[in-house]
Amino acid sequence: MKRQHLILGGALCALLMAAGCTDNTTTSEIAMSYADPGKPVKFTDFTPKSGAAATRIYITGDNFGTDPDKIHVTVGGVPAAVIGSDGQRIYAIVQKRSYNGDVTVKVQDQKGDTLQSFTFDSLFQYQPRTVVGTLFRNVDEKGNAGFQEGDYSKASLASSDCLLFDPKYKEGSGEDRLLFSSNYYDGIYQINLTQKNVKRLFPRSQYKCLQSFTFTADGDTMLLPDDNGHGSDYTAPNMYYALRSEGFRKVRPYSYAQCTYAVVSMKNGDKFYGSWEQATIYRMGNNKGLIPFVDDPAAGQTKMFSLSQVTSIWNGHTRMIKHPDEKYVYIWVVQNGCIFRADYDAEKHLLKTPVLVCGSPDQSGFKEGVGGNARVSNPWSGCFVLNPDYVKHPRPDGDKYDFIFSGCSSNDCIWRVTPDGVCKLKAGRSNPNSDGKTYGYVDGDPLTEARFEQPKGITYDETDDMIYVGDYGSHAIRYITTE
């Protein structure tokens, strides 16, 4: 149905003062008019000349008409959102990734025929900025949420403890981009970023406590560690698996061993996992094709080390994640405020003695710093993120990645750690002086506006340079991106 009137908000009323709209007016109806085919369409200038995504751009001239559906603006080849016009000034909003900067305006008559298309000589200087946003969030009037399938308008995840992308996705393949989310309460969910919907793959039925998951090197098997409550025996499954050929919908026992909180799977088939007692790391034995199997010393299980051997850490939920190039593995205990690095020897099939990367096993808190001088609290989940500066200016060790991890509990933030152990705040904890809080649900600039509340799952999409965060306290899937 053809629109006959344009409803204008306060921002556009400020633009259309001549039409009788004041700054105090919230909405106003203005009779629709169209560019006059018998008169020339003139273009004078645009302002401002620079800005980031969401910048308001004003284009001046004459004979534009007032129907925004008949006015088309592109900035840097990306269509801008045309909000309105008073005939002599167009108001539009710059969209993200408008990098090239050329500003083009096309004005149509009432029938939709193009009267004039014009490109300004001067360019809009696009200034990319990093922002925290929300992929989806649906809560009740008290801010609570359960687990709900559906499109983004109604889907909800009460918790997202671990996030991972489909490792077999290839850009340009035409396949949907899939993000998987695990949680202790309700199994594994699939977030379809292409179709913009969420569905559960399987419920919490067999396992006792799923806190993380990973994929085998070929990407066809999902491995699901289980905190089975058996700290030192082999009588219960400590790991389950699900197959891509079955849509990751069926869960079966993979191995029997000590309670397990995280596993890494190397390209050569080596698998390492962390357990509770003494924060011990094991290499899984060769199952000789048997699934499930009992992974005990008789089956080839090998103890790599215990963090209790090198620190004051005794027991804990031991997490781990491998470097993208499999150079090393980062290891941490959720109850402590530090992260370790264990180099990987692929020839000897072992992890070497761990060294401290950042934080302290004895002191938690919030303090940026280098190595043991930094203070973090309850690191929950992490991922490696490509650093373009390391690509442009190669490091002596050839490492191209920083490590990003969620500071759950009292930190309520996202940390960034360089390969040299420089630990700095990436996002969150903004404006602590305004209300005394460092947590909450706020989008915006990572360091001056954004807040999280107990962020947990975190992962990185290198194809789109996007970090996704499962914000537990906000019941939301958030993202951090440079536009």
Shape verdict: elongated
Q: Level of helix content?
A: under 10%
Radius of gyration based on Cα positions: 27 Å
How would you classify the helix and strand content by structural class? mainly beta
Mean pLDDT, to the nearest integer, reads: 90
Q: Report the major sheet.
A: 5 strands, antiparallel
Task: Tell me the number of strands.
Answer: 40
Strand content: 35-45%
Strand order of the largest sheet: 14-18-17-16-15
Query: Spans with pLDDT under 50 lasting ≥5 residues?
Result: 1-30
Terminal residue distance = 35 Å
The DSSP helix count reads 3
Itemize the secondary structure elements and their pairings.
Blueprint: E1 5-8, H1 10-15, E2 28-31, E3 42-47, E4 50-51, E5 56-62, E6 71-75, E7 78-79, E8 81-85, E9 89-93, E10 103-108, E11 114-119, E12 125-126, E13 130-137, E14 150-151, E15 162-165, E16 178-183, E17 187-192, E18 197-202, E19 214-215, E20 221-225, E21 237-243, E22 252-256, E23 262-265, E24 271-274, E25 280-283, E26 293-294, E27 302-306, E28 318-322, E29 328-333, E30 337-345, E31 350-351, E32 355-360, E33 369-370, E34 379-386, H2 388-392, E35 401-407, E36 413-417, E37 422-428, H3 432-435, E38 455-461, E39 466-471, E40 476-482
Parallel strand pairs: 4-12, 22-26
Antiparallel strand pairs: 1-2, 3-5, 5-9, 6-7, 6-10, 8-9, 10-11, 13-40, 14-18, 15-16, 16-17, 17-18, 19-20, 20-21, 21-22, 23-24, 24-25, 25-27, 28-29, 29-30, 30-31, 30-32, 33-37, 34-35, 35-36, 36-37, 38-39, 39-40
